[in-house]
Amino acid sequence: MMTDVVESSGSLAPHDRPAGDPTGAAARTGTDDAAAAERIGEIRRRIDEIDRTLVALWQERAALSQEVGATRMASGGTRLVLSREREILERFRAELGADGTQLALLLLRAGRGPL
User: For each of the chain's 115 residues, which pLDDT tens digit applies?
Assistant: First the structure.
């Protein structure tokens, strides 16, 4: 387990870097192998792209869900439609297992607020 302290820039202080690792790449990637470190960097860049997309989609979904709720309530409907929530929970559980259920609960809360 790595316990080195990372500076606010995300890299190790020069005096904390292993000898022969002037950029601190081993600390950031967990390996001294240059080819593996480069591949890890490529993979992490793609993960960061996916994360940005997920955040944007999360925000869009929450806004749309809030609009559905506001439209429903403005027309005299109920705040929640539990059958719809169960449908979403089941879809995520079927695709992702227990983690999917937890993810669906978070998505639902983002759109409607806490119960």
Answer: 334 434 344 444 544 555 555 566 778 899 999 999 999 999 999 999 999 999 999 999 999 999 999 999 999 999 899 999 999 999 999 999 999 999 999 999 999 988 7
Q: What's the CA gap between 77 and 40, in Å, rounded?
A: 51
- Indicate yes or no: pTM above 0.85: no
Per DSSP, the three-state class of 12 is strand
> By the 8 A CB rule, do 73 and 105 touch?
no
Alpha helical stretches, state H, the chain: 25-29, 34-74, 82-96, 98-112
